[in-house]
Specification:
Distance between the termini of chain B: 57 Å
Number of strands of chain B: 4
Largest interface: A-B, 21 and 20 residues
Shape of chain A: elongated
Oligomer: heterodimer
Strand content of chain B: 5-15%
Number of helices of chain B: 7
Strand order of the largest sheet of chain B: 2-1-3-4
Strand order of the largest sheet of chain A: 1-2-4-9-6
Distance between the termini of chain A: 21 Å
Number of strands of chain A: 13
Largest sheet of chain A: 5 strands, antiparallel
Radius of gyration of chain B: 19 Å
Shape of chain B: elongated
Helix content of chain B: 55-70%
Strand content of chain A: over 45%
Structural class of chain A: mainly beta
Order of helices and strands of chain A: HEEEEEEEEEEEEE
Largest sheet of chain B: 4 strands, antiparallel
Chain lengths: 148, 145
């Protein structure tokens, strides 16, 4: 029994139950998109996500589209810098218009969240997509697990 | 990960704190000490869990504390030389009816404390005590002549 408790604690040290962030990055013809956020959380956790778009070619109308998993059961405390506009897309996705990003420049969006204490979920989709207008440029598949 | 590490840090801090505070304070909890203990617990909890309200978090913290406590008792059992550090040592405070001033000073014990402890064990005069020992848990043991 004690061994089981020790194993659970060691799993905690190895970030099995959150909340250390990891970075996912995709490279596409217009640049790269990286997302840094934890993939495991617990009720009440304060956490942050960083989205970075590095453009190698001009992106005229960058739009960051977040899966509903980013908002469901979470309190969104801060979005910096504020997007040009915010709207909703199909399946409850959030679309943040970032505006133009010139070749050789990058855009970093910071978001702060808190998990609602009653939220419990297992591998909820939390994909991130970057569009140029209506054209999909890149997508980062992610999931998040919130432990009770 | 950070939750377990914070629990380890707090455990080490508490362990060092109990070593510094001394046996006497641990052995006798006055009303003010009890209030301090409650406030201490609250402050420690905030430092460890912060905004975490989860069962998982509570399991990790309690599990870490239990594991470290078992580790300490195992070390004390397996390596007797570590006992004075891990558990402290009993200290003789009266020998042949004579209080040992140096040991009393070290543990911030007064003659009144000794006489009170003796009275609790049905001993009227310190002169009747062969040995009085301040045990590692802060209690006084008296051996009569």
């Amino acid at each position: 029994m004690l061994g089981l408790i020790v194993v659970v604690c060691l799993l905690g040290v190895w970030n099995r139950f959150g909340q250390t962030s990891s970075t996912s990055r995709v490279v596409f013809p217009y640049g790269s998109l990286s997302v840094t956020a934890p993939s495991a959380l617990r009720g009440g956790d304060l956490w942050s996500a960083v989205f970075t778009v590095a453009a190698t070619r001009n992106i005229r109308h960058a739009v960051l589209v977040l899966d509903s998993g980013w908002a469901n059961g979470m309190a969104i405390n801060t979005i910096e810098p504020s997007p040009v506009s915010e709207t909703s897309r199909d399946r409850g996705r959030l679309a943040f218009t970032l505006g133009p990003i010139a070749a050789g420049h990058s855009f970093t969006l910071y978001m702060q969240f808190q998990v609602n204490p009653t939220t419990v979920t297992w591998r909820r989709p939390q994909d991130v997509q970057l569009d140029d207008g209506n054209v999909v440029l890149a997508s980062v598949p992610r999931t998040v697990t919130v432990y009770p | 990960m950070d939750l377990v590490l914070r629990a380890v840090a707090m455990f080490v801090f508490l362990f060092v704190l109990t070593r510094i505070i001394g046996k006497r304070e641990l052995g006798s909890l006055q009303p003010f000490d009890l209030l301090l203990l409650i406030i201490l617990g609250d402050a420690l909890q905030q430092g460890m869990t912060q905004d975490d309200y989860s069962i998982t978090g509570a399991v990790l913290i309690v599990g870490t504390f239990a594991s470290l406590q078992v580790l300490l008792s195992w070390m004390s059992f397996r390596f007797p030389r570590t006992r004075p550090i891990l558990e402290g040592e009993p200290i003789i405070v009266i020998q042949n009816g004579e209080p040992i001033a140096r040991n009393l000073r070290r543990e911030r014990l007064t003659i009144d404390d000794l006489t009170e402890g003796a009275r609790r064990q049905g001993i009227a005069h310190l002169a009747d005590v062969h040995f009085a020992i301040l045990e590692t848990d802060g209690t006084l043991s008296f051996l009569q002549k």
